[in-house]
Amino acid sequence: xxxxxxxNDFFRNTDLNLCxxxxxxxxxxxxxxKADPARCIFIIKRDETTDKIVEDFHKGHILxxxxxxxxxxxxxxxRIYNT
Length: 83
Known about the structure:
42% of the residues lie in helices and 17% in strands.
């Protein structure tokens, strides 16, 4: 039996670096909402680690490997500008 998804099953934000950090830590970027020409909204599937990663990101407690982070950022920017 499949679970019906709700808005609470997704994390939405406009911060590219936070989005890249979540993807770095194995979250899936479901969509990029570009309806507002001034900014895009990243829609990420929540899991049990999402809130902790977001909290650690804002506290400055996250460490990433720079080359992998830059590769993720390049891929996400491609989704923003090439689609």
